[in-house]
Amino acid sequence: MSEDQAYFIADKIKSGDSAAFRALFRLYYPSLLSFVEGVVKDRTIAEDIVQTVFMKIWLYRSSIDGSKPLRSYLFLLCRREVCSWFRKEVAVQRFVSGYDREEIDRFASTPVSDSAELDELSRIASDVVARMPQKRREVFILSRREGLTINEIAVRLGISPRTVNKHIQLALRAMRSALGQNNQL
Length: 185
Prior knowledge:
This protein has about 180 residues and is an all-alpha fold. The chain is built from nine helices and no strands.
């Protein structure tokens, strides 16, 4: 595909053309999958990562920069998703290594005692998020619900990573405080 064609497809996708998106997917999916699979060494995980990249392309298509090479952008997004996956894997491994196998199995097999407790926790958390200042709420949602990194949030919102980090700290402090007052922690 020539650069002109790539820029044309990027513009079509940006305007919501699903046929152009399908063409992009068919064109780049195999090479992106091969790239990611070579890094994570698991086809299923690689498929999930590449599909996540394409999902984000479609969801955030209005922010596609048509002046940059699309192929490079796709590989960059894949690399970022792989890094994010590795960070999550390391966190899970750290968590799991802190417990013995019996504790994990016992915890996993313990039924939730009362769905009303979960509903109450969810209500409290939603209330805390709703009371946050707009920017803090936006940062918290991007961080916790969408799983974006501090740098990704900073770029998206046009603020510094330190400001993003401070918003997350204050949001978590408010969440801990509210849950602690309700004896939920």
